[in-house]
Amino acid sequence: MSNTTDTATIIPLDNVDPALVEALLDRAFEPERRQRTAYKVREGVEWLPALSFAVMDAKDMLVGTIQCWPVALNDEEGRAHPMIMVGPVAVVPEQQNHGYGQALMASALAGIDERAPLPQVLIGDPGYYGRFWGFSNAQTAGWSLPGPFEQHRLLVRCANPAVLPEKGTLGPWTR
Question: Where do the N-acetyltransferase domain residues begin and end (predicted)?
Answer without folding.
Answer: 8-161
